[in-house]
Specification:
single chain, about 400 residues, mainly alpha, Growth Hormone, Chain: A, two-stranded antiparallel sheet, 16 helices, about 80% helix, MFS_dom, transport, transmembrane, Efflux_drug-R_Bcr/CmlA
Length: about 400
C-alpha cells in the first residue's frame, strides 16, 4: 500500500488527473478523419469535445460532494469503471449520435480523476503546500497531453481512429487496478461531510459568496477557455486549412505542451519565493499578450503554423503557472469541504470552456481568425479577473513554514 505523502503517491494522483487531458488531446489529430468516417461535418465532431466538457462539468457537481461523504477512493473506482465502459462504446460507435453518447458517459466517469485529485492534494498536504504539489503534479501530467496527440496520430495512421478509444479503455483499466490494490484513502473519517442536499447546497452557496474563491476560479476558467478554444479549433485550422499532416500537428502540439510543462515547473519552483498572487499576475499578463499577438496575426491574414503555435506556446507557459496557483487559491480556505470546492471550481471552469469551444466550432470560418480571437479574449479576461476580483481582497498573512500567502 502506498504512503499518502510519498513521491509515488504524487505520481499516481498525477496519472489519475491526466485522464482528463488524455481523453481530450489523444483524439484531436483524428477529428477530421472521424468526420469523414462517420459522414458528418466539423461542427458535429467538435461537439464531441464540447459535450465531453459539459458532461465533465455536470459530473463534478456530483462526484465532489459524494466523495466528501464516502471518501475519494470508492468514487474514483466507480468513475474509472464507467469511463472504461464508455471508451469501449466510443470505439464501437457506428454513428456520430452513438459517439456523442459515449463521450458524455466518458465525461461522467473521467471527471472523478482531476476533481478528486485536486481534493486529495488538499486533504494530504494542506493549504500552502498544495500549490507547490499541484505545480509539480501539473508538470508531471503534462507528459500526457504532450505525448497524446503523437500517440493518437500514430494510432490513426496504423489502426484507425477507433484504436484511440481502445487505448483509453486500457489506461483506465490499469488505473483501476492501481486504485484497488495499492491506493490508501486520502480523506480522514473526521473530515467526512453529509450528502444531504441542504448541506451540499449550503456549501455551494458559501463558496459562491466567497470573493476569493470566485476570483481564483474566474482566473482559471478564463485561462482554461483559451486552451480549450485551441483544442476545439486547432486540428481544423492546422490540418485542414494550413495543410499540416496529423503527425506534424502532433509534434506542434507537443511544443505547446512543452510550454505548459515549463510554466508548471516555474510555478512550483517560485511558489514560495514570489507568492501565489504575484505569480498569477505575471502569468495572466503572459496569456493576454500571447493571445493578442495570435489575434493580430490572424486579423492581418498571416496564415502560417508558426503564427498559431508560437503564441500558443507562450499562452500555455503562462497557463502552466496560473493553473496550479489559482487551484490552490480557490481550495485553500475550504478544508472542510474540499471535494465540494473542487467540484464547483471544476464545474465553472469546464462550463465556461465548453461554451467557448461550442462558439469556436459554430463560428469557425475556415481560417484561424475565430480561434485566435477567442484565445485573445480568454487571456485578457484572465488578467481582468485577477485585477478586479482577486487583487482587491488579497491580504498577506503568515502561513505554514513562515511563508506569506494571500489566504482569505
Amino acid at each position: 500500500m502506498l504512503r499518502l505523502t510519498s513521491p509515488t503517491m504524487v505520481l499516481v494522483l498525477a496519472a489519475l488527473t491526466a485522464l482528463g487531458p488524455l481523453a481530450t488531446d489523444m483524439y484531436l489529430p483524428a477529428m477530421p478523419a472521424m468526420a469523414e468516417s462517420l459522414g458528418t461535418g466539423p461542427d458535429q465532431v467538435q461537439l464531441t469535445l464540447s459535450l465531453y466538457m459539459a458532461g465533465f462539468a455536470l459530473a463534478q457537481l456530483i462526484c465532489g460532494p459524494v466523495s466528501d461523504r464516502y471518501g475519494r477512493k470508492p468514487v474514483w473506482i466507480a468513475g474509472f469503471s464507467l469511463f472504461l465502459f464508455a471508451s469501449l462504446l466510443c470505439a464501437m460507435a457506428p454513428s456520430i449520435e452513438v459517439l456523442l453518447v459515449g463521450r458524455f458517459l466518458q465525461a461522467f466517469g473521467g471527471a472523478t480523476g482531476p476533481v478528486l485529485g485536486r481534493a486529495a492534494v488538499r486533504d494530504i498536504h494542506g493549504p500552502l503546500e498544495a500549490g507547490r504539489i499541484l505545480s509539480y503534479m501539473a508538470s508531471t501530467m503534462a507528459l500526457a497531453p504532450a505525448l497524446a496527440p503523437l500517440v493518437g496520430a500514430s494510432l490513426l495512421l496504423f489502426f484507425g481512429w477507433q484504436s484511440v478509444f481502445v487505448l483509453l479503455a486500457l489506461y483506465s483499466g490499469v488505473m483501476l487496478l492501481v486504485m484497488v490494490l495499492a491506493m490508501p484513502e486520502p480523506l480522514a473519517l473526521e473530515q467526512r461531510q453529509s450528502t444531504h442536499p441542504s448541506v451540499i447546497l449550503a456549501n455551494f452557496r458559501m463558496l459562491l459568496t466567497q470573493r476569493s474563491f470566485l476570483g481564483y476560479t474566474l482566473v482559471n476558467a478564463t485561462g482554461f477557455s483559451g486552451l480549450f478554444a485551441y483544442l476545439s479549433g486547432s486540428s481544423f485550422v492546422l490540418i485542414e486549412f494550413m495543410g499540416l499532416l496529423p503527425l506534424q500537428y502532433g509534434i506542434g502540439f507537443s511544443l505547446i505542451v512543452g510550454g505548459f510543462f515549463t510554466g508548471s515547473l516555474a510555478s512550483g519552483r517560485y511558489s514560495h519565493r514570489l507568492g501565489r498572487d504575484r505569480l498569477i499576475l505575471i502569468a495572466s499578463l503572459m496569456c493576454a499578450l500571447a493571445g493578442s499577438v495570435m489575434a493580430v496575426l490572424a486579423l492581418a491574414a498571416v496564415y502560417a503554423p508558426w503564427a498559431v503555435i508560437g503564441p500558443q506556446v507562450l499562452f500555455l507557459f503562462g497557463f502552466g503557472i496560473l493553473m496550479p496557483q489559482s487551484m490552490a487559491g480557490a481550495l485553500a480556505p475550504n478544508p472542510q469541504c474540499a471535494g465540494s470546492a473542487s467540484s464547483l471550481f471544476g464545474f465553472l471552469q469546464m462550463t465556461t470552456a465548453a461554451l467557448v469551444g461550442a462558439v469556436v466550432g459554430q463560428l469557425h470560418d475556415g481560417t484561424s481568425r475565430t480561434m485566435a480571437i477567442a484565445i485573445s479574449l480568454a487571456g485578457i479576461l484572465a488578467l481582468i479577473s485577477y485585477w478586479w476580483v482577486v487583487r482587491p481582497v488579497s491580504v498577506p498573512v503568515r502561513g505554514e513554514e513562515g511563508v506569506l500567502s494571500p489566504y482569505k
